[in-house]
Design brief:
alpha+beta, 3 helices, 10 strands
C-alpha cells in the first residue's frame, strides 16, 4: 500500500485539522470528539503490468509497480463548520505547488476527485451534524529491489552448410 502516513498527514493539513482528528476507518479506538475526518481505502488495482529496470551488470534491478487506489475522505463537522466547504478547500489546496512537490517526492499523485457528497445527518432526532465525503483516485509507485541471474559466457557452436565458420568462445568484459 502507498505511504499511509504521508496521505494521513496531508489530508489533515489540507483540512486544517490536527493529526489526531484524522483517523483511519475501523480503528480499535473511539471516534474523536468535535470536527474530524475518517479515511478509508475501498479499492486498489495494478494500473499496468510491472516493469523491471536493471541497475547494473551484477543483476541488481528494480521491480516497478504502478497502482491505482481509491480513498474516501469523510468529514464530520461540528460547531458551525461546514463539511462540504472543508472538502472543497481540500481539493483546491491539492494544486498548491508545495503540495504537488511533496506528492512527487513520495511518488504519489492525486489524479481524480469525485463530486463532494453531502451526507448531513440528524443525530438523536435533535441535532444536525454536517457531514460530507469525497472519493479521491490516487496513483502511486512501488519499487521493490530484485536480483536477476546474469549470463556470464555464451558458447555458440554449429554447422554451416556453405562457408566454414569460426566457432569458439566470445568473451565480453563488463565494467561497472
Amino acid at each position: 500500500m502507498t505511504n499511509d502516513k504521508f496521505l494521513h498527514d496531508l489530508v489533515a493539513e489540507l483540512l486544517d485539522l490536527p493529526l489526531n482528528k484524522v483517523i483511519w476507518a475501523y480503528p480499535d479506538a473511539p471516534r474523536p470528539q468535535g470536527t474530524h475526518a475518517v479515511l478509508r481505502y475501498y479499492g486498489q488495482k495494478q494500473e499496468v503490468p510491472a516493469e523491471r529496470r536493471i541497475r547494473d551488470s551484477d543483476g541488481n534491478a528494480d521491480l516497478i509497480n504502478r497502482w491505482l487506489v481509491w480513498l474516501e475522505v469523510q468529514v464530520y463537522a461540528q460547531k458551525g463548520e461546514n463539511a462540504l466547504q472543508m472538502l472543497k478547500e481540500l481539493v483546491n489546496k491539492v494544486e498548491l505547488f508545495d503540495v504537488q512537490q511533496r506528492c512527487h517526492i513520495q511518488r504519489v499523485a492525486l489524479i481524480n476527485f469525485e463530486p463532494v457528497k453531502d451526507l448531513t445527518a440528524l443525530l438523536d432526532g435533535r441535532k444536525w451534524e454536517s457531514r460530507a465525503a469525497i472519493d479521491i483516485q490516487i496513483r502511486f509507485t512501488d519499487i521493490t529491489a530484485d536480483k536477476l541471474p546474469m549470463l556470464e559466457n555464451v558458447i555458440i557452436t554449429g554447422k554451416l552448410n556453405e562457408l566454414p565458420a569460426n566457432t569458439g568462445i566470445i568473451n565480453k568484459e563488463m565494467e561497472n
